[in-house]
Amino acid sequence: MRRRLGAVPRRKETAKVDKRAIKSLFEKWSDEPGLMSLEGIARMAGELGLDPETDVRVLALCWRLGAKKPAQIDMEEWEVGMEGLACDSVEKLKGLVPTLDPAELDARSFRDFFKFVFLFSREGTHRTIEKDIVVSLLPIAICGRSLHTVPFVAFLDEAASTTTRVTLDQWCSFLEFSDKVTTDFEGYEEDSSAWPLLLDEYVEYAKAKRGD
């Protein structure tokens, strides 16, 4: 069939979502108007078959949705995030779950995610996180990318450090330290200001444990 003169070829349609359905999902899991707290996020995770306490994909979903404040997602973040993910139902969110594993991220994206986990896990206006929370959170968030995780968590758990709260700089530095320093501590220079004091204390602790 001959194309009509002046007719414009149809563009391929992009995925469309039901904005009302997206809003209904938010209202289903939100705790108060315009806000989904950790309790609501836990309910959402449960419907997706995820354990909110131990499954890092719950944190990855919050990151992908664009959550900006600690321990919550607001209505605007939810609507924009869900549209960006082309999700407007529980079934579509379940279909997204296999793509949420942060272990599959490239190094740069993983650094962004790892930083997000710290910021999202703070309490209220606190800039730091209690050491006990880090002990539980770090093994989940690091996604197997550090051979230092087990001894570092033991170092924190045994109260071998002088700190009771962990800063964002210390948290992010642990990931960088893990990339650059081997378990034999090759790449670590003593009497250097390259690392936060917390990591210097960790190295001293680990070497003492080995009898170095």
Automatic annotation (TrEMBL):
Annotated DCUN1 domain residues: 17-207
Record-level GO BP terms: protein neddylation
GO CC terms: ubiquitin ligase complex
Gene3D superfamilies hit by this protein: Cullin, PONY binding domain, EF-hand
Record-level Gene Ontology MF annotations: cullin family protein binding; ubiquitin conjugating enzyme binding; ubiquitin-like protein binding
Signal peptide: none
Top-level taxon in the UniProt lineage: Eukaryota
Biological role: Neddylation of cullins play an essential role in the regulation of SCF-type complexes activity.
Full protein name: Defective in cullin neddylation protein
Organism: Chrysophaeum taylorii
